[in-house]
Amino acid sequence: ASGKMTGEWVPDELEGVMYDSEVEQAIHEVYPSSDPLDVIEFDPVDYINKLFPTEQSLAGVDDTIGRMRVKIHTLDSDIRGIVREQAETGHDGRQSLEEAHRAIEELFGRIRNIKEKAEQSEVMVKRITGDIKQLDIAKKHLMDSIRTLEKLRLLITNLEEIDRNMKFRQYSHVASQLKGAEDVVEEFKKYQVIPQIKYLIDKLSSLKKDLAAQIKVDFEKAFSIRGTPGGAKAELHDACLVMDALGDVIKENLISWFIKMQLTDYDMLFHESLESSWLDKVDRRYSWMKRTLLKYEEESSAIFPHEWSMPERLCVEFCHMTKKGLSSLMKTRGADLDVKLLLFAIQKTTTFEKFLSNRFVTSSYIESLMPQKIPKEDEQQEHNEEPGSHPRLQQDSSPFLGMISRCFESHLNVYIESQ
Predict the structure, then answer these.
(1) How many CB atoms lie within 10 A of CB 349?
(2) Taking a C-beta distance cutoff of 8 angstroms, is the pair 172, 241 a contact?
(3) Residue 333, Cα to own-chain centre: how many angstroms?
(4) Quick one: which of 57, 142, 327, 389 could link to 52 by a disulfide (CB 3.0–4.6 Å)?
(5) Cα 245 to chain center, whole Å?
(6) Distances in Å between the alpha carbon of 97 and those of 88, 111, 206?
(7) 225 backbone dihedrals φ, ψ, rounded to 5°
(8) pLDDT per position as a tens digit, 370-383
(9) What single DSSP character describes residue 347?
(10) Which of 336, 319, 321 lies closest to 275, judged by CA?
(11) pLDDT tens profile 232-272
(12) Residue 228's beta-bridge partner residues?
């Protein structure tokens, strides 16, 4: 050749090792190389021309062929080594895969074992929790029984102490003990079918009756001398606390007895058959009541609890008795009525009612007696009264206003006829 080797000849062996361009590109990316033999678009003719650019360079063709053969031998050795390693690797891979399968089977076996043990543990836990639940129920019933027995013991102790303190008239202790016994008995009422429980409940009822009777006797003895209390006022005050604990009915009986006893003298002094009961001496009634209030404050206020509103109750009963007595008198002696006497009685009565309304302003008892307000149309009529009309008895926010003076309304015709 006089120049570079040219032509279209390509050895048949090289045709067998040609790869697709994408494969060649992937190989180059994985194993980058600067060897011209590894170029994707390798041109053997161009490669030989580079090795033997001139005719003079052909003198070293034998050396070049020798180097090529050495390189080919090296590549063959490398290929055989790689193939051998790959075969060994495949064998090792199958062995590793079998070992992995065995490990997985062993793992599944352990998992099944753990699952079985977990199921056994769950059964055992359910059995244990079932036992614990039964124990909790038993504990609750036991605690309820202990509390019930403790309350029963307290009830028996309270009843014994009430009985003992009642005999020694230690009413300050009886009041608190009675309240505690009442609370316990209220809980035990559903067990009355049990004879022992019924006995204790009946015993408390019996003690309450005995207490009410004994306290009533104590008050009768204390006020035996014309309504003047004697003995220890503190003891009677404590007895009132016991009456509070005994209930409203028993308490009201004692209050009614006391008020009736306080007003016994009034009924005798101003009896209808006496001249002192007539309207011209009506102011004496009210003076007597004022003295009675002062006497109560001095002698009896320390005995009765403030919540009982004893002065208010006493005055209310006095007003009712006075209204009833005056009504009966005016009906019997209507012929003796004249304008002057009627106006005098009305003026003294309304003055006393205002005195009571100012003295007893607020209390639960007074509020319970509070009259309904006068309708607005009535108030308007009252404001529009003519100067010559008869006086109208007024009602106000206090129950005492009009409590006595209403008895005069049916006799105001005397005033009208005189006009």
Answers:
(1) 27
(2) yes
(3) 66
(4) 57
(5) 28
(6) 14, 21, 97
(7) -95, 90
(8) 755 545 444 444 44
(9) H
(10) 336
(11) 789 999 999 999 999 999 999 999 999 999 999 999 999 99
(12) 225
